[in-house]
Amino acid sequence: MQEKVNAILAEIGSADANSQEELEQFRIRFISKKSVVGELFAGLKDVPNEEKKAFGMKLNEVKQAAQAKFKELIDKLESSSEGGDHAHPDLTLPPSGAGLGSMHPLTYVRNQIIQIFERIGFNVADGPEIEDDFHNFTALNFPENHPAREMQDTFFIEKNPDILLRTHTSNVQVRLMQHQKPPLRSIMPGRVYRNEAISARAHCVFHQVEGLYVDKNVSFADLKQTLYHFAKEMFDKDTKIRFRPSYFPFTEPSAEIDISCQICKGDGCQLCKYTGWVEIAGSGMVDPNVLASSGIDPEEYTGFAFGMGIERITQLKFRVNDLRLYTENDVRFLQQFKTLH
């Protein structure tokens, strides 16, 4: 496989195009979704786990080389056309209409989620995407060198290991608890970053909505009813929901949230891996240590928190199976959502 990668890199480096036809041939072979580069990414699943990270980085290098070469060839053809028929275009001709998309599906689903929670008393909170270690980890019960930190591959800012790109929007929860007194009832939508190889199922940039409710006598029953309400409002009244015991450093007890698959309605399909259930969120009661680190008395107050991926919810609503489509800015993809409003 490595030899094949090197051969493709060499072919990209030596490629040339002296016409639009040759340029299109290069695009089809190296840039399009069915290109040889795309085949390499598809084969990533067959690479041993211990080699995937290094191999994924190599594939990204190939992809970037192909894109850079493509731009170079475009510039070459444009410069060679100077002095020809295109040197003095007819400025009296009407402009060609630019292709228009529509509301982005992630924006649409994000707005839907916000509206559902606003109707039951949650407000929207925001915070920085560039964060320090304390607000992203320490205040959320991640001790230094604790194995839980390894659950998330983090982008650290060069030359300052204390500054990073946030791995979740939980940092907004910490800042909220530090600067406001209970009762608190907020959701935190936003962009988060993790150092992962880009593929159809994973991306280094994605979106989350987290929720926090802190007050006197908040119980796990409140958490369950809140998420029951969300699932039925976001999908339909027949949606089933289940809680599975799990572990998160900042909640105790913790639970993963599954809903009945919206594609097969629980009968079993490829999306739900034939189980009839799809995971949509993590949740739990806020750990007393987290409350205390933010200046809230855990003897007086309790709370629950939850977090879900907007991409996962969008996938269930619109059956978008490739996460890369969300960030490619392809008008053809966006045009499929013109009916959204």
Explain the overall architecture.
This protein starts with a helix and ends in a 7-residue tail after the last helix. The chain contains 11 helices and 9 strands. The mean pLDDT is 87. Helix content is 37%, strand content 19%. It folds into 2 domains: 2-79; 105-337, 2-Layer Sandwich (BirA Bifunctional Protein, domain 2). Helix 2 (20-30) packs antiparallel against helix 4 and helix 5 (105-118) crosses helix 10. It has 341 residues and is of the alpha+beta class.
Query: How many distinct helices?
Result: 11
Strand content: 15-25%
Shape: globular
**Biggest sheet architecture:** 7 strands, mixed
User: Within the largest sheet, what's the order of strands?
Assistant: 1-4-5-9-8-7-6
The pLDDT mean sits at 87
Relative helix content: 25-40%
Q: Rg from C-alpha positions?
A: 24 Å
- First and last CA, distance: 46 Å
What structural category characterises the helix and strand content? alpha+beta
CATH class wording of the largest domain: Alpha Beta
The helix-strand sequence is HHHHHEEHEHEEHEEEHEHH
Tally of strands: 9
What would CATH call the homologous superfamily of the largest domain?
A: Bira Bifunctional Protein, Domain 2
Question: How would you sum up this structure in a few lines?
Answer:
With about 350 residues, the protein is of the alpha+beta class. It has helices at about 1-15, 20-30, 35-40, 50-80, 105-120, 135, 170-180, 220-235, 290-295, 310-320, 330-335; strands at about 125, 130, 165, 185-195, 205-215, 240-250, 250-260, 275-285, 300-310. The chain has 2 domains: about 1-80; about 105-335, BirA Bifunctional Protein, domain 2, CATH 3.30.930.10.
